[in-house]
Amino acid sequence: MVVTPADNKQAHELPKVMIKVRHLANRFGSHSVHENLDLDIYQGEIMGVVGGSGTGKSVLLRSIVGLLQPNEGQVEVFGQDFLTLSDREREPLQARMGVLFQKGALYSSLTLTENVALALIEQAGLARGQAQYLAKLKLALVGLPSSAANKYPSELSGGMIKRAALARALALDPDILFLDEPTAGLDPISAAAFDRLLLTLRDALNLTVFLVTHDLDTLYACCDRVAVLSQKRVLVVDKLPQVADFDDAWIQDYFHGPRGRAAQQTASLAAQAHTS
Ligand SMILES: Nc1ncnc2c1ncn2[C@@H]1O[C@H](COP(=O)(O)OP(=O)(O)OP(=O)(O)O)[C@@H](O)[C@H]1O
């Protein structure tokens, strides 16, 4: 059973913090992207990270997973001060984090099985045969038919490629999954199917999910809480209705513009259908 922050509160227990970011600053030359950014992510939650283009959502993701050294601040993951660890100390923790990058980036010259197996060979040191066997299980886990396993990315639809990239992110059985725009470029039906898959996997695998998205339907369908990046920091982090009520021009446009209203209506209809 997944223990959500809400369940934990009911049990009068504090939720376990999986990612703790404090006073983070990221600057590129004279361009300051983050200053004094704080964020906590709890075990088992899906945290949606939104914000205008260029507000630093991907930079935040890269700072947390250790691909970018911030200029200032602390990043604790699994209770460990990530930025002060040596590469050797950090590697086993990084193996517990799966990442699906914005551009999906599967190797075009490898089949789906080979793409997923590569992570198991390179990062877990598995023999090729074992890695390919496990890779096929991961592809099945994300709902790909066995006939897709030996295909190349160019032979597949966008939705199938996203699923394969997700299988690769899950290759090492991570505790935290980072997704950068996983539904970008998908048609609405494939995007909704991806959202359902994410919820199922979160529950089945007890994942904590850091989800960068512009997709309002995904926010309504999947996220336990939402963090809005603006003004170089997390302007607000809360459950979606509270965030949508926050007094800020970008937030009001985003959540209460035509697309925001449509996403909210879809979510209410889905909730009604679920309860009737
Ligand atoms: N390696 C880098 N060198 C210089 N500038 C960078 C680098 N990486 C990111 N930036 C800049 O940091 C800012 C934030 O980039 P980031 O990709 O995190 O934005 P984002 O919020 O994810 O945007 P989008 O929603 O458009 O994907 C941008 O202005 C970008 O140009």
Automatic annotation (TrEMBL):
Domain ABC transporter, residue spans: 19-256
Entry annotated with the keyword Ion transport: no
SUPFAM superfamilies: P-loop containing nucleoside triphosphate hydrolases (SSF52540)
This protein's name: ABC transporter ATP-binding protein
Keywords, sorted A to Z: ATP-binding, Nucleotide-binding, Transport
SMART domains, A to Z: AAA
GO molecular function, one term: ATP binding
